[in-house]
Every structure is written in C-alpha cells, then in structure tokens.
Specification:
6% strand; two-stranded antiparallel sheet; heme binding
Length: 707
C-alpha cells in the first residue's frame, strides 16, 4: 500500500472519528438504516433494532450501487464509502462508489481488516480450536476487525451492536479460519468501560479500600459450608477463558505477562492492570502502584460473526457436577479409571483405614497451584480451580468419593452393567444431587422464601421444562452478582473434632492454591467439621483482608492481590452495565442522587459512594449490589435477589436434563426422584467421611446447641 493511500485513508478516517460510549444493554437505541446490498447484505430497519434477514429488505440501497456492500448504513455521522472508493481507485481496482452519503462496508474491506489481525495473532486456517487459547486468539482477531471497521467508518452505536453481526463472514477471508463447530462505538466493541459520561471511573482498588475494608462482623445463622458450596457450584456453571502463561519466572515456573513492570507488555492488548492509588494504606507500605491483571480471552460468535467482544465460558453452564467430571472429553477421560465406572483417586491413607483423596495433578502441576518444591503436587479434578482454596478441594473430594461409592453399589445391584453404563448412571445421579442440594438447602438461605416463590424455585411445586429458555449463565451473573459470596469469606479456616471441639485454624490466605493439609491423615474430616461449625462473615459490603490484600500471595511476598478490586475490574472489562442500570432492569427505582442510597444501605457506605464516585450511574454492579440491606428473610438485597433468582430460574426450567424432567428416555422414574429428594448434603458427608457420624441435618445452617 502506498504512503499516499495510507495518508488519504488516515485523513478520511480521522476526519470523522467520534467517541462511542460503552455498551449498556438497558439504554435506548437510536435509529439508523442498514440495508441489504446483494447476497449476504444486512438490514436494520429505521424503526428500531428489529433485524430483517438478508434479501428481505423493502428499502433499496441509497444510490443503487451497493451490490458489493457487506453492510450498508444510512445514518447521520456515518462514514461514507469514500474510504473504500479511494482505496479501490488508488489500487486500480473496481468497486462500489458512493451510496448517497451512507456507509458501504465492502467484503474486501472486511477481509483486509481480518488478514491484518490474523497476521498480528499468527493465526492459521482451521487451527486446533479444541485448544481454548487458539479459539480465544481467533476471538481477539475478530474483535479487532469489528473495532477497526467501527473506527474506520465511524459507525453509530446501533450499527456496531446490530449491524456488524449481520455481515456474512463466509464471503470474506474469515471463512477459512472459522471453526467447523461454529459454521452453521470502539468501546462498544472491545475497550473496557473506564469512562462514563466523559468522567473517569475511580480505581477499583480505591473503591475496595474505602468501601469494602473488613471490620470482622459475623453472620449469626449460616456456616462457612454455605460459602464453600456457593463457590463449588459457581465453578460448575462459569469459567471465563484466560490466557495460559507462556513465560518462565525466576523460580522456573510458568508466569503470566507482567503488565505492571515489563516494558515488553506496554502495548499488550490483553493487559488491563489495576491502578493502586499512591495513598493506599496497605500497598503503599510496599511501594506498589499497579496490580497485574490479564483480560479474558475474546469469544467467537456463531458463524464467526462480527460484533462486540464477549468472553468465553469454558464449562457447561448447567448444574451438572462438571467440577467432578469436567466439561470436555479430555478432562473426562483423565478423571476415569475405566473400571467399574470409577473415578481416579489417591489411596495414600488406605492402609490406615482412611478414604482416598483426589488424584494428584500430574498433567499440569503448576496450574493454579503454589508449589513449595517440585515433588509436591496439588490435586486434579473435573475443574482445575479445585485448589483455589483448601475447603473447595475438601468438598470436591467428598463428591468423588460419593461417585465411587454409588458406582460400586450399582455394580452389585446390576452385575451385568459395563463400565460405561455404571459411569454414566452414577454421573446422572451426582448431577441430580448437586441440583437438589442447591435448590433445597443453598438457595432458600441466600434468597429467602419470597424470592424463591416469585421465581418458582421451590421444589415440589410442579415442574415443566421450558424449551424456549436458553440455559446459559448471564455475563452479569458470572462477573458480578454470584460473586456476592466473597463478602462471606472468613479470615481464618477452622478445624474441629468429630465431637464438635475447636482444634485450631489457619489464615485463609495460607490455604489459597496450597491445599497441602489434606495430605495429613484425618485433617479432611477436621476441616469439614470446621466448615459446618464455623460462622461465616456477615453478608454486607465488607470483605476480609485475607483476599483484599493477600489473595494468591506468593511465599516470598508480604502482599497479594485484591479480590474485590478484581471483581469490579472484570465487570468493567466485560462491559457489563452499572448498578443503577440493573436496578432499573429489576423494576427498582434508579438512584438519581447519592442521598437516596441511605434508604438502601448503611449510612457510612452511602457516604463512601458519594466521596468516590462522580455520579450514581457510575457505581459498579458488584459493589453496589452487595452493599444493599437484605430483604426480609434473605441474605441479599433486592438487586441481587432479582438477578440471582432469575438466573437460577433459567437454569432450572431451561435444562432438558433437569432431574425432575420426565420428558426424555433416560429420565428418572418418580420413585427415583423421590429417593433423590430424601438426600441432603449432610448425607453425603456422613457416607463419605472417615469418622464423622453425627452432624446437623442442614449443614449450611449453624446447629442449635440445645439440640
């Protein structure tokens, strides 16, 4: 390309450049027209965001010369096709002319933008897209194409959201790269939400240090077991794809790109570090001004369509106990013994009469694990976050034990069943137990009866599968609302004897990615007894410093990361709307003045928001939602109650394999469903512990000492 061409295109693009606000799913959409222009052309009627299939528009392309347009837009402020026209003239190519002042994005322009992005990410046609990182790199390239087109043509916001996805990418060079299983404004496209209404958002670390600094208040009803269960089912439903570390650190182990200190990553588009204020009371002691954070990998839309950036959920969104079995074939195979339907375990204490542990992670020993030496291993499970904290590994150990216990019993009852039948039948039972315990023990405590009834979540009141519901997890749920449990995390994790006597405790930060106490005989029972006897932190806006100052702290450091700040930074990175937008979505009144917050939360918190944020619309969803006073009989406020309740209604009624559904050949019989409904989490603990034989029936609720 000649310098003259580059200069002309740059001048044309620069002359019409405009800022595009971050996407809010609840904002009104202004009108523009996107016309079809030959095969694969896209249409957006002038009446609003309703889309018309290609080839069905009743509105002719302006000027009648849009036959080569992948997308034609007539809207004030849209870049004309002069960019493509100039390019074609200077290169001696034929192409479309002007279309009456509208925008004509040609297939050639889309291909050129993609080829440049593909070279940047070193993509190869039909790469191994079973590797989620390869898929993520393709997603990054497609997001870059969308951003490039939006930038070059100064596309209006609704054209980005509703027009770009209609481009037929199979008529471009993208087709050769699109995975087979998918073949069937700028900030609006990719950039994180750092500015709203022209005003910068405050540093998430500043919000965390001011509004979410722990004061040690405790709940008076729920145990830490509720927190552990919530994290386990969260891992069952959501796992946003991340870049895998490729560099090797000084300790010889893989490390993520250092976006704070390594100049090689100054322009890395995956870097999104958190700014630490100079006056930070904790990190200032160690001279830290930056917290490293890597962006989630970009997803690939169906048919490799262009449009706003979306992350990838790498696990099944349903409650199906995938934390035991995995969400992909490779993980599922790795977990199995292929004998008697059993899962792999580590029989390290079998000679002492104690039950097996999870198998060691030999295939990726450094993944999610802080190892003191090369001969010490974390554990392997269906979800590789099993080692994030010891209590999570403990509960997952009980589920693997229960799978093997049930598979063994089924083999005795049905000696003619082979390994595959035993495995699949047991897996279906374990998924049903996970669903039943969640809706029978966990959600009633979190949401309360009023929300449970409103969202039809109470078991035993009839069930009918709804095929119109898509049982996926909402981005707001994965990124913000179901992270409410971080407020409940304790500063220490206690061990209790089977006779309910306190033994000791360890700091939570010492057990994050370091589950090695499980290798000590008898400790797994002691930690489980601690989970059902230790009171959780209060459900409020405060989060323990063990995860706001010491999250994943390396042994050589005296500081770690800040989980609360990461929650808010992730929400901004994923472009989810703010707290006020979701209040409106839930039918609650918007906050127009900070003084109105005093009706929703404690006074100190309301005053804190006024001091930090420029406008109520800027409040991050996670921060505002966990700060609300709880509803009557609930642990959470109205916004969390609305969003969590809605998500679990979708997961229940949108799951064809839900354990109460009778509509498919392998469904449970009414008698089998009745047996499943007799089970409690306490039953699984008693059946699979070493020496626990007497605990409260509902282990997420603190036992009554008088009973």
């Amino acid at each position: 390309m000649t310098r003259l061409l580059i200069l002309l295109i740059g001048l044309l693009a620069g002359s019409v450049r405009a800022s595009i606000d971050g996407f809010s799913g609840f904002s009104s959409i202004s009108s523009s027209v996107i016309h079809p222009s030959g095969p694969g052309g896209a249409v957006l009627p002038a009446t609003g965001p309703t889309l018309v299939p290609p080839g069905h528009s009743t509105v002719p392309p302006p000027g009648g010369t849009g036959a080569h347009c992948a997308l034609a837009v007539t809207a004030a402020g849209g870049q004309s096709s002069l960019v493509d026209h100039t390019r074609n003239v200077l290169l001696g190519q034929s192409g479309p002319g002007h279309i009456g002042g509208g925008t004509c994005i040609t297939y050639e322009a889309v291909s050129a933008a993609f080829e440049q992005a593909a070279a940047r990410y070193q993509l190869q046609p039909q790469a191994d897209y079973s590797d989620v990182e390869q898929l993520g790199l393709l997603g990054e390239a497609l997001t870059e194409v969308a951003a490039s087109l939006a930038h070059t043509y100064n596309l209006p916001r609704e054209a980005i959201l509703h027009g770009l996805p209609l481009i037929d990418t199979y008529q471009t060079s993208i087709a050769a790269f699109c995975p087979a299983h998918l073949s069937a404004g700028l900030q609006c496209v990719s950039a994180p939400k750092d500015v709203l209404g022209g005003l910068p958002l405050p540093s998430p670390r500043r919000v965390s240090g001011t509004l979410h600094n722990d004061q040690g208040r405790h709940d008076h009803a729920v145990t830490v077991m509720l927190v552990a269960w919530g994290q386990m089912i969260d891992h069952d439903m959501t796992f946003t794809a991340e870049v895998k570390p490729k560099e090797i650190g000084r300790n010889g182990r893989p490390k993520m790109p250092d976006c704070c200190n390594d100049p090689r990553h100054a322009d890395n588009p995956l870097c999104y570090p958190i700014v630490i204020p100079a006056e930070d009371e904790f990190y200032g002691l160690y001279g830290q001004r930056c917290m490293n954070l890597i962006r989630s990998l970009a997803g690939v839309h169906n048919h490799c369509k262009l449009g706003p950036r979306d992350p990838i959920n790498t696990v099944t969104s349903y409650l199906d106990a995938s934390f035991v079995y995995g969400s992909d074939e490779e993980t599922a195979r790795r977990m199995r013994t292929y004998q008697g339907g059993l899962l792999k375990t580590l029989p390290v204490f079998r000679e002492l009469g104690l039950k097996d542990l999870l198998p060691p992670n030999l295939h990726a020993p450094d993944e999610g694990c802080i190892r003191p030496s090369n001969d010490i291993f974390c554990f392997d499970a269906g979800d590789n976050r099993v080692n994030e904290q010891l209590v999570l590994a403990t509960i997952q150990t009980y589920f693997v034990r229960d799978h093997n216990r049930i598979a063994t019993e089924l083999s005795l009852i049905n000696p003619h069943w082979d390994d595959q039948t035993l495995y699949q039948e047991t897996k279906m039972i374990m998924a049903a137990l996970c669903q039943h315990i969640t809706y029978n023990e966990f959600l009633p405590m979190v949401l309360g009866r009023e929300v449970m009834e409103r969202e039809s979540l109470i078991l035993g009141k009839g069930y009918k599968y709804d095929p119109t519901l898509e049982g996926s997890t909402a981005l707001s749920f994965a990124t913000a609302t179901f992270r409410f449990g971080h407020s409940l995390l304790p500063a220490v994790v206690e061990r209790w004897s089977v006779s309910r006597k306190y033994i000791g405790s360890r700091r939570l930060s010492e057990l994050l990615r370091q589950p090695y106490d499980m290798y000590r005989g008898g400790f797994i029972d002691q930690y489980v007894m601690g989970l059902i006897n230790q009171v959780a932190q209060a459900m409020d806006n405060l989060v323990t410093q063990e995860v706001t100052n010491h999250l994943f702290q390396m042994p050589e450091n005296r500081f770690g990361m800040d989980l609360a700040a990461i929650n808010m930074q992730r929400g901004r990175e994923h472009g989810i709307p703010g707290y006020n937008d979701y209040r409106e979505y839930c039918g609650l009144p918007r906050i127009t003045d900070f003084s109105q917050l005093h009706d929703l939360m404690v006074n100190d918190t309301a005053l804190g928001y006024r001091a930090i944020y420029s406008h109520p619309d800027h409040i991050d969803l996670w921060s505002g939602a966990i700060s609300e006073r709880p509803l009557a009989g609930s642990m959470v406020g109205p916004t969390l109650g609305c969003l969590i309740g809605e998500q679990f209604r979708t997961l229940r009624y949108g799951d064809r394999f839900w354990y109460e559904n009778h509509g498919f050949p392998s469904a449970f019989t009414p008698e089998q469903i009745g047996e499943i409904k007799k089970m409690k989490l306490s039953s699984i603990i008693c059946d699979n512990s070493d020496h626990i034989d007497h605990i409260q029936p509902y282990v997420m609720v603190l036992s009554d000492p008088e009973m």
